[in-house]
Design brief:
The protein has 84 residues and is mainly alpha-helical. It has one domain. Helices cover 73% and strands 0% of the residues. It is built from two helices and no strands. It has helices at residues 2-24, 34-71. Helix 1 (2-24) packs antiparallel against helix 2 (34-71). The protein is elongated.
């Protein structure tokens, strides 16, 4: 179960990094026409939105997996130790 959680966190971080990459990437050379720049901007926004959607989807699945693991007894809440 811990391997699944670790992999899910890695996928979440990778999707977030991909969204940041697509958001910050430059449009290319300055010789592009305005229409080409608009197409590239739309494509970049589409890729960024897909990466963020993947991150949100994986986060929701991870949250549901943690809730199910608690429900079926795979994990148990232990609370904070109070300095005994």
């Amino acid at each position: 179960m811990s391997i699944l959680v670790a992999l899910a966190f890695l996928v979440i971080l990778a999707a977030l990094a991909a969204a940041g990459f697509f958001m910050l990437r430059s449009s290319g050379s300055q010789e592009d026409t305005e229409q080409d720049a608009a197409v590239q901007s739309t494509e970049r926004n589409s890729r960024m939105a897909k990466a963020l959607a993947v991150r949100i989807g994986v986060s929701v699945v991870l949250f549901i997996c943690v809730l199910l693991a608690w429900k079926f007894g795979y994990i148990k809440p232990s609370g904070l130790p109070l300095g005994r």
